[in-house]
Amino acid sequence: MSIQETFKSFSKLNVLIIGDVMIDAYMWGNVSRISPEAPVPVVAVKKKENRLGGAANVALNVQAMGATPLLCSIVGNDDGSTILFDLLKKQKLSAEGILKSSSRTTTIKTRVLGGNHQMLRVDEEMEASIINKETDSLVFVIKKLITTKKVNVIIFEDYDKGVITPELIKSIVAFAKQKNIPTVVDPKKKNFMAYTGVTLFKPNLKELKEGLKSDFDQNNLKELGKAVEVFVKKQNIDTALITLSEKGIYTHSKKTKTLIPAHIRNISDVSGAGDTVVSVAALCLALNLPSVLTAILANLAGGLVCEKVGVVPINKQQLLEEAIRLKL
Fold first, then answer.
1. Average pLDDT over residues 218-234
2. What number of other Cβ atoms are within 10 A of residue 218's Cβ?
3. Is 59 in a helix, a strand, or coil?
4. Cα 226 vs. chain centroid, distance in angstroms?
5. Is the pTM of this model over 0.90?
6. Which fold does the domain 3-22+53-107+127-325 belong to in CATH?
7. pLDDT at residue 221 greater than cutoff 60
8. In this model, does residue 268 exceed pLDDT 60?
9. What residues are labeled active site?
10. Rounded distance, CA 115 to CA 100, Å?
């Protein structure tokens, strides 16, 4: 299959995304003075914007690649959820997998930017895990969507905000195995060791070190490989994809253990790059592409979004052009 045909095939896929959805709010302004009240800059706000973030940004990346995202989460029954549902509607994203709970808060991360520099971030959120009753309700909705829609791959997009629990992971991974659906994980610290038996596991270097409670030499490929080898065996994981920032991406499976170097880029903002990497990797996995090609495309995509300011989804055409230029 040519790279053009591969990109066309992405449009036939349904991707179920489970995780912490949030709003990325931005305030842009100019800084020309220091506050008389405290030694802090005063930002004169010129523009405000709300964008979909967290697991919802993964849905945007999946949609940008031409596939159909099915987003599953629990949010608060508050003003934040109203903004979130409006944003989903504007983006033509289905909200049928999203439940509201009066005991939860909808996560909003507000970034204050002076020029193109982030001056401050204000987080409104709740990190406690959802209660058993809510886990059961969410599992029910997820299984219903898997049963009624032809789901090709499942992404766990974990931001440690409490939507993903060990019980939910166990239940959905087992159900996905029954249905022969591959599972992909973008982990955080809390549930790091709970993802046993998943198909593809994509931490960054910091998450890997924290999760393994190990401080191996990241510049030594042998040491990195050894740490990953022990981990995938213990967790019964098919493929690990470790993002290494400017060093690139390391892919580790039974057949392949290789480092894909990063491309030289003008980095503006790394926020959201992990969401892009996991989205592209999941689509490649759903098409059963070789793990090296999966890593190369995911690495390319992550690099491209770093050239943009703020959390933005991948541009499919731009990614395709880069892939063609590199003769993939």
1. 90
2. 18
3. helix
4. 25
5. yes
6. UDP-N-acetylmuramoyl-L-alanine:D-glutamate ligase (3.40.1190)
7. yes
8. no
9. 275
10. 36
